[in-house]
């Protein structure tokens, strides 16, 4: 089976590509802007016809779109998260209309949740800012395309390789810099929000199942941990894994711009279980341990060089 993974050099895409490469008989093609990409793709600027020609030459059985941006200006968010999926769908309709499209969306599309409740796919989407709004626009484009497609609405990914653009990766970098200094202080923003964390390896497994599942799938499936965890708990647990002995100070500013607007986020993941046989396999503790172990290996490797 031939898979085309867009955004394979990113956090989620890298894990998805690795997972698919482990499948017997799989051929995984990487699509992106880099010179060594198997298929040259720039969803922010490509026109449908040239992209269709590139996709036709790749002849994928399934396309997994992991391309997306989070911390960027509104124009960039719109170009990649909204325009990108629309262009991809138009090109696929021309070049490979029978291919399965798995598009990674975001739980941010739902917007503010109700404390104590899990949000299902049928809930109204009320994104609180440009990121969630542009991801929702991408979902609408995919759902309206007429392709054999499914959107995986991913919660807050965590686990090995988490980038510093997200809170788990940023805290990991701060803990690495602090080392074992008992006088060190981690200064963070408000950590009172609740988020639904899901291991990046579980996200990759969901993408694999969605790309290879026989028959049509629901248009949207939530992929999360299924539990709301206070961000403060995540930070304290990660600090404990790292052996941090200093202070953690919440200064009320400098955190995610979404936190004051979305204080509660928790996904109902029942539909993913029913459609894909998927459920999370990693606990948050295991995810944070793997995140810290991967960061420590990277730090040791850098020191050795």
Automatic annotation (TrEMBL):
User: What InterPro entries does this protein map onto?
Assistant: Epimerase_deHydtase, NAD(P)-bd_dom_sf
Which segments of the protein form a coiled coil according to its record?
none
Pfam families registered for this protein in UniProt: Epimerase
**What residue stretches are annotated with the NAD-dependent epimerase/dehydratase domain?**
4-224
Q: Which domain of life is it from?
A: Bacteria
Annotated family: Belongs to the NAD(P)-dependent epimerase/dehydratase family.
Q: What is this protein called?
A: NAD(P)-dependent oxidoreductase
Q: Which organism is it from?
A: Streptomyces kurssanovii
């Amino acid at each position: 089976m031939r898979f085309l993974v867009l955004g394979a050099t990113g956090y989620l895409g890298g894990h998805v590509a690795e997972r698919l490469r482990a499948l017997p008989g799989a051929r995984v093609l990487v699509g992106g802007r880099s010179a060594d990409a198997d298929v040259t793709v720039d969803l922010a600027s490509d026109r449908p016809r040239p992209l269709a020609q590139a996709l036709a030459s790749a002849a994928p059985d399934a396309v997994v779109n992991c391309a997306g941006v989070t911390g960027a200006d509104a124009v960039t968010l719109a170009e990649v998260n909204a325009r990108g999926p629309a262009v991809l769908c138009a090109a696929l309709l021309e070049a490979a209309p029978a291919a399965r499209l798995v598009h990674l969306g975001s739980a941010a599309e739902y917007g503010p949740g109700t404390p104590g409740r899990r949000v299902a796919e049928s809930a109204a989407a009320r994104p609180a800012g440009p990121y969630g709004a542009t991801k929702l626009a991408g979902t609408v484009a995919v759902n309206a395309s007429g392709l054999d497609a499914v959107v995986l609405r991913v919660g807050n990914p965590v686990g090995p390789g988490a980038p510093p653009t997200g809170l788990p990766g940023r805290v990991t970098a701060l803990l690495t810099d602090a080392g074992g200094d008992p006088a060190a202080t981690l200064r963070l923003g408000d950590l009172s929000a609740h988020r639904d964390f899901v291991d990046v390896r579980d996200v990759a497994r969901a993408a694999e199942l969605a790309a290879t599942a026989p028959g049509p799938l629901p248009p949207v499936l939530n992929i999360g941990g299924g539990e709301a965890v206070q961000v403060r708990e995540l930070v304290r647990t990660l600090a404990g894994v790292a052996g941090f002995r200093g202070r953690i100070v919440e200064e009320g500013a400098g955190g995610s711009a979404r936190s004051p607007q979305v204080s509660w986020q928790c996904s109902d993941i029942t539909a993913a279980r029913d459609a894909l046989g998927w459920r999370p396999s990693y606990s948050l503790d295991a995810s944070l341990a793997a995140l810290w172990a991967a960061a420590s290996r990277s730090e040791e490797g850098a020191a050795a060089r």
